[in-house]
Structure formats: structure tokens, C-alpha cells
Design brief:
Blueprint: E1 2-5, E2 11-14, E3 18-23, H1 29-41, E4 52-56, E5 61-62, E6 66-69, E7 74-75, E8 78-84, E9 89-96, E10 98-99, H2 100-103, H3 107-112, E11 116-118, E12 123-124, H4 125-128, E13 136-143, E14 146-154, H5 161-170, E15 178-181, E16 197-203, E17 210-219
Parallel strand pairs: 3-15, 5-11, 6-17
Antiparallel strand pairs: 1-2, 3-4, 7-10, 8-9, 8-15, 9-11, 9-12, 13-14, 13-16, 16-17
Organism: Kibdelosporangium persicum
Protein name: 2-keto-4-pentenoate hydratase/2-oxohepta-3-ene-1,7-dioic acid hydratase (Catechol pathway)
InterPro entries: DUF2848, Fumarylacetoacetase_C_sf
């Protein structure tokens, strides 16, 4: 169950019934093709077509301050998320935490091995739909007590929510309880993504409002054997 606060003070509870992660979802598919080639060089299997949509276990949609990981090669991705409720569509911030060691064996596997972290606030999509491309996405990582910006861009770099809403209708998934994450924007080169903490912010330059999610990564103990 997810709980969101809206700007007008209303609170909305949503039982997650379907969780979907978009991948290779850049607005420019030429840039996506370049990214696919870069990942292939690192051993990550190339998708058969783009964009992709990965079904994820609904219990992996979390609003928490902690992610538990079995090793140190996991990291987040700055994203927005749409949440289908009984009455409307909400927009919030999200961070798709991913197991990078598993990613070389399968992107879907890597996403299933870590949670999707969502903000506790949301906006009605209808209230920002006319300026969706101007909304900002920013991510920071923290190691040794210092925050460093690792991602910065706009929602205009990604396929818009309406594109995915049409997909959800086509797949008969536009139902209360469906949560869809957008895919991510490029990471800055030279910044260590395998950090101790992640923070992601969705911003609206027109109103100055922001929604954020922040969490600490806790390394699980080694297996007892």
C-alpha cells in the first residue's frame, strides 16, 4: 500500500496491483540506440526492441528510507512514476534501484532484485500535463558524507506519461493500482554510482514545488554457511 500527499492537502492510498518499469525510454530513439550499444559493450544484453516495459513484483514498490543489498554494485536511476488511482492519475518521483551485476545476465532480473523507491508526495497529472516536458529530474549520490549530482535533466528527455498511458490502455493495465516508472536520463561520467545513499527530486519550475525520495543502502551480511 502506497500513501501520497497532494498539494491541496488530500491524501490518497493506493494498493499496488501492477508495477511496470519502462526501459530504453528516451524521447530520442537515436540516443537510445547509442546507449544500447554502450551497454552491450559492458556485457548487458541488448533488447530486441525499444522502448521496453518490464513487469516487476508489486511488493517492490516502496516508500522507505532504506534499500538492502547483497553486494556493493547496486545503484539507482532518477525517474518519474505515474500511479493509477480510482479517480485519476498521479505523478510522483521515483528511483529504480538496480543490481548492476545481475544486469549483464538480464535487465528484467536486475530490476526484480531491488525495489522501486517512490516519493511520499504526488501531483495530479492533469495539473502539470501542459508543462510535463519542463519538469526537472535530478539525482544526487552521497559517499563519505558528501552529496554529488549524478543526473540532471528534464522530463522532456523521456517518453511522456501519455505515451505510457496509451500503452496501459492497449495492454488492459490502465486500472487502479498500476504503477509505471518512466525509465531514466543519462548519468554524469566520472561520478561513482555505487554510493551509500541516493536522493532523487522531481521539480516544477513554474511553481517551485519539488517531490523527492531519499534512501540509504544497507549491505546485508555475508551468507551464514
Amino acid at each position: 500500500m502506497l500513501h501520497f500527499s497532494l498539494p491541496d492537502g488530500h491524501r490518497v492510498a493506493v494498493e499496488v496491483r501492477a508495477l511496470l518499469n519502462a526501459g530504453f525510454a528516451g524521447r530520442s530513439q537515436d540516443d537510445v540506440a547509442e546507449h544500447v550499444a554502450e551497454l552491450a559493450a559492458l556485457g548487458v544484453p541488448a533488447p530486441t526492441k525499444t522502448p521496453c516495459l518490464y513487469p516487476i513484483a508489486p511488493y517492490l514498490a516502496l516508500q522507505s528510507g532504506e534499500v538492502y543489498a547483497q553486494h556493493t554494485r547496486t545503484s539507482g536511476e532518477a525517474e518519474w512514476a505515474i500511479v493509477i488511482t480510482r479517480d485519476e492519475v498521479l505523478l510522483t518521483v521515483a528511483c529504480d534501484h538496480t543490481d548492476r551485476d545481475l544486469e549483464v545476465h538480464g535487465v528484467a532480473w536486475s530490476k526484480q532484485a531491488a525495489p522501486d523507491m517512490l516519493g511520499r508526495q504526488a501531483w495530479r497529472l492533469a495539473d502539470v500535463a501542459d508543462r510535463i516536458d519542463d519538469l526537472t529530474l535530478t539525482a544526487w549520490v552521497r559517499s563519505d558524507s558528501e552529496w554529488t549530482e549524478i543526473q540532471a535533466g528534464t522530463c522532456g528527455e523521456l517518453l511522456p506519461p501519455q505515451y505510457w498511458i496509451d500503452v496501459l490502455h492497449d495492454q488492459k493495465l490502465h486500472i487502479p493500482g498500476t504503477v509505471l516508472l518512466s525509465g531514466t536520463i543519462p548519468m554524469k561520467k566520472g561520478v561513482n554510482q555505487f554510493a551509500d545513499e541516493w536522493r532523487v527530486e522531481l521539480g516544477d519550475p513554474l511553481t517551485g514545488r519539488t517531490i523527492s525520495t531519499e534512501y540509504h543502502i544497507r549491505r546485508l551480511p555475508d551468507p551464514i554457511a
